[in-house]
Amino acid sequence: MKLGFACKYLDSELKQVFPFRATTRTRFLSLPDEEKIKLIHELATVNLTNLFLTLEQLALLPDPLRMMRIGSDLLPLYTVPDATILYKTFLPDLYPLFKKCGDFARKNNIRLSFHPGQYSVLASDNPLVVERAIEDVEYHALCAKLMGYGQTFQDFKINIHMNGKKGFEGFKNSFGKLSPEAKLMLTVENDEISCSLDEVLQARALCPIVLDIHHHWVKENAFIQPDDPRIAVVKESWKDVRPVLHYSISQEGIIPDQGWPEQSLLGVPKTKLRAHSNYYFNDTLNEWALSFSEFDIMCEVKMKNLARDRLYEYYLHRQES
Length: 321
Prior knowledge:
about 325 residues; alpha/beta; eight-stranded parallel barrel; about 45% helix; globular
């Protein structure tokens, strides 16, 4: 079992060690083309360099901790039309950095992923939203391809939600418009508002299903268990690749420190339950997440790798006892 973290690698003082840099669309568009190119070239170079430095840190850790989600702003503003055109003037200069990252990750068995934002809605009933969502997925696929991925089924994970008024049929139609490489990498996840696990399972023939156990609890007020028949269906969608689940819990002070939270007794709306905690403080829920022993776990928690490391220590103690 691998335990991953999302985007930011923190040190013991809670500082981001190798941060990605970004800029605003407004600032970018205010500059003449020459300065635009200089800005995004510099930012992309810094981000790729810091990605490699992060990967170097992961390679020093035990194999179960070699898993991370890369931030979407690897190439800042890439999908802004004015920036897309300018990136083409220098993107080949960045190919060696991309390749360096991908080669190093594969050599050191580091599992990587992207998670496009909430506005990438392939199932939207608005054609413009769908068009932008496809562009966003393809941007992430491009970054993965430049690192040498997208060659085999799920050699890299690009995860999105299926939310959108057109539901599965809309998702299916948009999926068909993706590049072959994007299709190999895309996964779809249940969420806590619009798409339940049962609804997302409709996509299992198209792409793997990422199980988010916290989203499922918030939506259904149920703690799904590894022997639930739907879990077998989730695993089947991954074929011969180890499946991934997402694990988060509600914030400190919202749910108890031990035991199974019961929504009707918490006295807070679902919107409060959705927010992620700093650390994994409830060992009942930790036991639950770790009981999905055939899955790798992406830790979606505010203290990133630090919280993940504490969960790993709990996991080791659990194995020894």
